[in-house]
Structure prediction request, 185 residues.
Amino acid sequence: IADVKEDIDHELVSREQIDSKIQEMAARVSDDYRDKNPLVIAVLKGAVNTLVAFTEALSIPVQIDFMSLSSYGSGTKSSGTVTVRQDLSADVRGRHILIVEDIIDSGRTLAWLVAELKRRGAASVEVFALLNKPSRREVDVDVKYPGYEIPDEFVVGFGLDYDEHYRNLESIAVLKPSVYQGEQA
Ligand code: PRP
Ligand code: MN
Ligand code: MG
Prediction:
């Protein structure tokens, strides 16, 4: 990849829009979780940018942990199975958990994680997801703090990747289909 801008078709969500949605949800979460000492769990790698901006915008004390989950591999379609690349370091038993995700597509990653955290004894589990592609949903997930609904286009940036590239773009953009043309179905 010589020039990232060459691979981008158009911007879909600007950095201003990203920041304003994150501020809005951080204000709601700060109200809802006052005195609850929540554990904020970011789903790596995609949620890392959202996690940083979101937790900086909170006005309450929180703890932070990470779980690295993969459902995509190197393609543009979810594989349907969730792989744990790296687990949490915290014990979630009795904790109020807020999961931070970059995007909900089939819903499989989140459905698996919510069930797993409840199985481990979390007191409550809620979700903030910056982006949502409802047209691709295969599994139902309850999202208390929803971000932007987007159409069924493959997006990258602000943590989101295609084959591990483009995560460091400052806003969310649609990739030119030519970039992933010829990919194995
Ligand atoms: C992406 C994205 C979400 C998940 C959404 O992660 O960051 O975690 O897929 O898709 P789903 O709703 O169909 O499960 P990915 O597996 O690409 O790993 P990454 O975050 O490391 O890029
Ligand atoms: Mn992810
Ligand atoms: Mg990915």
In short: Helices lie at 4-7, 15-32, 48-57, 108-119, 177-180. The pocket of manganese (II) ion (ligand 2) is lined by residues 43, 46 (CB under 6 Å). The two ends are 22 Å apart (CA to CA).
